[in-house]
Specification:
The chain is α+β, with helices and mostly antiparallel strands. It has two domains: 58 residues; 157 residues, no CATH class. The protein contains two helices and twelve strands. The protein has a six-stranded antiparallel beta sheet with strand order 1-12-11-10-6-7, with no helix packed on it. The relative contact order is 0.13. Keywords: Membrane, Transmembrane, Transmembrane helix.
């Protein structure tokens, strides 16, 4: 018996206790190794994210700002989208605005273009397309030849008419004392109190209404103070913005920089 105790100084209970402790140590070592690996992985991901942010920051030019920022439509004073070519509020058209055009020389031409972002008159409106209405004035001696072309929807009211009609893709007129040999409608002059009226809009209903709103322009002429040797006076041409109905909704400039019309209004 004494010999057996010398060979195995630990009892069975002690051996079992040591085995349990060894297993517990292994478990804790595994947990610690797992935590170290997890922390190393998190640190690596953070470093990669920082490097990516630095690269994207370096690619941006100094002073460059993010584009296509949506407007804050919940406020009356709008936070405008920022872009290289986005119009500001002070660039929008106002009713009563007049544009004067002079066709100089005995044989010359003047082109007037009303569009969204292109042309002589830029509306910056969602209801207008580029090349919506083009007015071409050609001078032939003492007479003037007018040509109207449209890409968008246009209503037209001629002097002496009582009702607006939908304008064709191209219409021609003359301004001269004699009747036109080309059988186009002719006017001696186009007075400001009875101009050619244009209404421009996006969608035109069957009863000739623009439910989304419209721009109305008046086109007329005035004689210049000076006259030619033959006594004929040169004409100046005017295009007046008579009405924007119902008006720009300046609180809802879209991500492309264009302004819609106000939503709540009585139909025309």
């Amino acid at each position: 018996m004494i010999f057996l105790q010398l060979i195995n100084p630990y009892s069975i209970e002690q051996i079992k206790s040591l085995e349990d402790k060894a297993n517990a140590y292994e478990t804790w070592v595994f947990i610690l190794v797992f935590l170290v690996v997890l922390l190393a992985l998190v640190s690596l991901l953070q470093r990669l994210a920082i490097v990516k942010l630095r690269k994207s920051h370096n690619l941006m030019k100094p002073g460059q700002k993010e584009k296509n920022i949506l407007a804050d439509v919940n406020t009356i004073t709008q936070t405008l989208p920022e872009g290289a070519h986005f119009p500001q509020l002070n660039e929008l058209l106002n009713t009563g605005l007049k544009f004067k055009f002079v066709v100089a020389g005995s044989s010359s031409e003047k082109t007037i273009l009303i569009g969204q972002t292109e042309g002589t008159i830029k509306t910056h409106s969602t209801e207008i397309t580029d090349y919506h209405l083009t007015i071409i004035i050609r001078k032939r001696g003492t007479s003037y030849h007018l040509e109207f072309r449209r890409e968008g929807k246009v209503l037209i009211l001629l002097p002496g008419s009582k009702q607006m009609t939908e304008m064709g893709a191209r219409e021609r007129f003359t301004i001269q004392k004699e009747e036109s040999e080309e059988e186009y409608p002719n006017f001696n002059s186009i007075e400001s109190n009875e101009p050619i009226r244009f209404r421009l809009g996006k969608v035109l209903t069957e009863d000739l209404k623009f439910p989304g709103g419209y721009f109305e322009f008046h086109f007329y002429t005035k004689n210049s103070e000076s006259s030619h040797l033959d006594g004929n006076k040169e004409k100046h041409f005017y295009l007046k913005l008579y009405k924007i109905y119902p008006g720009y909704n300046t609180a809802k400039q879209n991500k492309d920089g264009y302004f819609p019309m106000l939503e709540k209004f009585e139909t025309n």
